[in-house]
Prior knowledge:
Radius of gyration: 50 Å
CATH topology of one domain: Immunoglobulin-like
Low-confidence stretches: 235-268
Oligomer: single chain
Number of strands: 10
Strand order of the largest sheet: 1-3-6-5
CATH class of one domain: Mainly Beta
Number of helices: 6
Amino acid sequence: FLQDLLSSSQKRSLKRKHRRxxxxxxxxxxxxxxNTMPIKTYDRSNPDDIIRFFGPMxxxxxxxxxxxxxxxxxxxxxxxxxxxxKLKLLRPYSARFVADExxxxxxxxxxxxxxRKGWILLNDGSMPWxxxxxxxxxxxDGIKVVKQPVIPVTAPHDRVLITVxxxxxxxxxxxESKWILSYRHQTFGPMIWxxxxxxxxxxxxxxxxxxETFEVVDVPLPACFDLSKPYQLTxxxxxSRSSFILPRTNSTDTQSEPLVDIFTNSTSSANDSLSxxxx
Length: 279
């Protein structure tokens, strides 16, 4: 009846007034809540502060995992599915592979060599990691482990470097080591591994490259080739000479004719050569 008596403008003004009163009431409730509930924060760089902040939640998550193990041992499938659904919503422990810190797959190593392999992982779960709760399980013990890995305290959505110290085998071949994270016998995250190639202990010497060598051969020349003395043509008793003939091809004549007379007969006497250089 009252709505019929009010005009449209009056109705709109009453609605605006009622909306403003509701907004003031909601703002007062939020102010009271913010004053009564202090904001809880923690220092992400302080491991002790991280453990303290997530302490109560760590106990609750641990109880859930204990209940899951009990229900699994008793064969209570309904209870197992119920707890697994809660853990899926909470997502307390999860990991993601980021990169290899060093020693890529297939790195050549010497027998007995000690080295350190590192992986960078991201904690993308809702709970922190620590060496008290999280273990790195060795799935394939292909390489001898010198020192067992330790999981540093890592806050949610932070990156961490996990390292393992190895010693190579004495026999040549390909060796692998595989790991995965675990919480109370429940594995999570990706599998990480290390693969190396152990070679022979004998060091192969580099082969010498073939070098082109020239050997100087001392060939004795006849006395007539001594250039330290002037050349003089000598007459020989024997008139026999040998001429060096080069063939010359002509378009009109194919006859060969002597060009140069350079060699004397090998039967020339040694006295003629001596008489030439004594002049």
